[in-house]
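sry for the spam today, last one i promise. struct tokens for design, 394 residues
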């Protein structure tokens, strides 16, 4: 019988047992591994759940021992195929490998910071190990993390309702309170490799946008590209530099906050937020934009944006005051920041729609679903119309 947890992946059961024992003080017996629900939506990693078994005496003396952990192993093969179909140029082997490495290492960096905290800033998984490509603790880059039991994710097309959107804003507020009252997260700064990947992301978005603009009803994507990428291929990096250089006040942004990253418990409260692979220093409105442009109906976005921003401002102000920190924005400045970050939000929305339309996200029974694709494109179109109007694009 093999001691490998997953066939052909050089991670042994003994290695995992020691990793878990180091974290919780009790050594489990490692059971079988299996496919995690919704793991088909993970494109830059292989994701597996692994059963844990503890002796009866350990279960009695250590309440709430974990039943499973999740292994997340850097692997971009599935994502590369989707990106190629969406219009991104992934013909260079180094490109896909570099994206994989960048995303895995980024997530490890931030999980290591979160793991040091006595009190977590928001609902985050317990991290048993976050091992980067260059680390020696494992033969492959891997994250070992808590599995949130008995949780669900919402389908992106069903979308979030009003109550759920307010709960998501609560989590965004917690992340921003952490950002504005601590400093260690700022020690993670882009190196030359990260900056190279940022430039490559811009190229990918432009390629995906050009193909997406060929879809009926999304011709206005061409207007956005003409006023952004065609004018300045580095415009996204220039925007990001404003936050990195503190010309605009920055916070820690998740960077890819959408439906599958938010886990909900049986009471419909948020149990955890996962997948911090493109986390970075950025606009306080970035994550809010991505949720509102992709994960709720057009009607909700139009009707709820202002009250949600009012709520965000009030909750952030009171949360910072409780910690003795002055709110750095007025309500009017939050509005200005929201409008300014439209242009960055549009790039991520274009990328997401092009990617999802060529992936299981918008499929039913393994085939593209015109109804699901149509609803996602409807949200994208409405959002881009507002971007183009707000930024006077023609």
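last one done:
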């Amino acid at each position: 019988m093999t001691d490998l947890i997953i066939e052909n992946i050089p991670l042994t059961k003994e290695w995992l047992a020691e990793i878990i024992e180091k974290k919780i003080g009790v050594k489990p017996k490692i059971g079988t591994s299996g496919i995690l629900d919704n793991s088909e939506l993970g494109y830059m990693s292989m994701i597996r759940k692994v059963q844990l078994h503890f002796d009866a005496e350990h279960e009695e003396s250590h309440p709430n021992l974990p039943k499973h952990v999740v292994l997340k192993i850097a692997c971009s093969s599935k994502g590369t195929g989707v990106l190629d179909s969406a219009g991104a140029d992934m013909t260079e082997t180094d490109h896909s490998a570099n994206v994989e490495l960048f995303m895995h290492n980024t997530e490890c960096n931030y999980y290591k910071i979160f793991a040091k905290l006595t009190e977590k800033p928001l609902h985050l998984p317990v991290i048993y190990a976050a091992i980067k490509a260059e680390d020696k603790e494992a033969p492959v880059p891997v994250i070992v993390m808590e599995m949130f039991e008995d949780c669900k994710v919402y389908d992106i097309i069903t979308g979030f309702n009003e109550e759920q959107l307010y709960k998501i804003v609560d989590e965004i507020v917690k992340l921003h309170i952490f950002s504005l009252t601590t400093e260690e997260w700022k020690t993670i700064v882009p190196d030359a490799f990260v900056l190279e990947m940022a430039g490559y992301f811009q190229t990918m978005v432009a390629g995906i946008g050009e193909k997406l603009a060929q879809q009926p009803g999304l011709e206005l994507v061409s207007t956005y590209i003409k006023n952004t990428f065609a004018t300045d291929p580095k415009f996204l990096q220039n925007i990001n530099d404003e936050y990195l250089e503190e010309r605009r006040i920055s916070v820690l942004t998740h960077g890819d906050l959408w439906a599958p990253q938010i886990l909900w418990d049986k009471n419909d409260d948020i149990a955890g937020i996962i997948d911090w692979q493109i986390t970075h220093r950025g606009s306080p409105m970035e994550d809010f934009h991505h949720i509102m442009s992709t994960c709720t109906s057009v009607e909700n976005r139009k009707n709820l944006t202002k009250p949600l921003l009012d709520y965000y401002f009030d909750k952030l102000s009171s949360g910072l005051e409780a910690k003795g920190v002055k709110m750095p924005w007025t309500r009017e400045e939050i509005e200005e920041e929201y409008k300014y970050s439209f242009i960055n939000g549009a790039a991520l929305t274009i990328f997401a729609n092009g990617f999802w339309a060529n992936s299981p996200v918008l499929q039913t029974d393994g085939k593209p679903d015109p109804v699901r694709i149509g609803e996602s494109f409807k949200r994208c179109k409405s959002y881009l119309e507002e971007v183009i109007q707000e930024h006077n694009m023609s």
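The chain has a mean pLDDT of 91. ok im logging off now
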